């Protein structure tokens, strides 16, 4: 891990300008949380509340999202998890988790700045973790990519962004809609190709 990971995360958060006022307000709380906790804010053993990294994996035309059925949570959710000591930054943690949980080797990250923040309480099945301060990143997968279920989930599958399964966490639809809105505001990139969606 970087010698001062909290400072790196703080800079990443401040580099991001959310269009949604609620996300902007929550980002301010994230910065305060990192300032108060320092590097311990990344460490799951540092306390019941800590940062996590997740990745919204989408098809190039942004019509489908890859979700895993979380073994502990018993819901469909984006890929992600805890930041590990070998991760150089939060974005790397998100993309590592996406690779590990999907088995898709040729993911294309869309930037290294978070496009979503979400703080949520966790049920008792998550053990000592009481609250996750999640940072959401985005990657694209080939349209014909076939995911492989990892040991951390019971299933992994593509879902249309406008027809999500009923068993998603509260607020997940809002998070995904915010991600899609943020992507629509970005200039076209070679990674997206000529889909016309960005």
TrEMBL record:
Pfam families: NUDIX. Residues 48-181 form the Nudix hydrolase domain. It comes from the Bacteria. InterPro entries: NUDIX_hydrolase-like_dom_sf, NUDIX_hydrolase_dom. This is 8-oxo-dGTP pyrophosphatase MutT (NUDIX family). It comes from Conyzicola lurida.
